Amino acid sequence: MYIRWMNLASLDLNLLVALDALLSEGHVGRAATRIGLSQPATSHSLRRLRELVGDPLLVRVGARMQLTPRAQGLRGPLADALDHVRGLFVPDTFDPATSSRRFAVMLPDLVADVVVPPLVERIGAQAPNVRLDLTPWRGPATMTTEFSRSIDLVISCTADAFPGFHRQRLYSDSDLIAVRHGHPAGTRLKRLDTFLDARHVAVIGPGEREDMIDTWLRERHIERRIALVVPSYLQALRIAARSDLVSFVPSRLIATFGDPLSLLAVQPPVDPGMDQQFMFHPTRAQVEPGSIWLRNLVIEIGRGLHRQRRRAA
Fold it and tell me: Which are the contacts of 79, defined by CB distance < 8 A and separation ≥ 6?
């Protein structure tokens, strides 16, 4: 215990920054560039770290350097520790009117078209210099520690918690059949036999095996005729608008694009129930003023969507 205390007492915090860069890059030269040091200075830091940790950390395998198991195990805890340390020196105030901060939000397209327009409007009114960066959707299984550190907010229909994130319910939606005006089947798609005869567009996003609707239908021993698979609901809507294909699409998207695309919303013969959308924020930003401000804006939008649904019902 005494030896470990002495090591900690003599530890240079810059070594932890160097270690984070080395573990992230897996390369001395790239780590040096990342932290603004020379390559010899970074190599010297690596030698000191190897002595402190008692592990080589980076080893050469052929022409490349690889992390040792000990180094792999350090990546997550080290990233969390550095985030906490940085948080000690971050001002505990956030002024939207003067801030030029960037917020990274990860969400699927069906949510972006519902939430982002009002969110951008609110941000523009309160924080004209704040920038919103939308990040392509990834499922929980593909969220690495390094990637999750770059995200300020996640919106997802999955109820499974993202590691290191808190969850809040945002809004609910239901699925309807999108069909073009003048379609030969039209409102007869409400009947199961017409629904089963129709040719459908399925939506299978990145990292998914099948459209969630088909998973739900199969549990009820129903299988629709899939003629086309696309990666986004917007593509499904556009194709349904210009062909005789039809598609299950969240009702809020049909409400948004139905008139411009001349689409009709038809109640399906089977009710897949309600879809829930959740908002996730990093645990490390639980009390961070900027994060709280952004979350409150998104929650206000979710409440507005909930009120719209109640009035429509």
Answer: 20, 145, 146, 149
What is d(CA 114, CA 249) in angstroms, rounded to the nearest whole number? 13
How many CA atoms does the CB half-sphere of 151 hold within 13 Å?
28
| Cα-Cα-Cα-Cα dihedral sign, residues 101, 107, 108, 112 | negative
- pLDDT digit string (tens) for 181-214? 999 999 999 999 999 999 999 998 777 788 889 9
Predicted model pTM: 0.66
**Which position has the higher pLDDT, 310 or 108?**
108
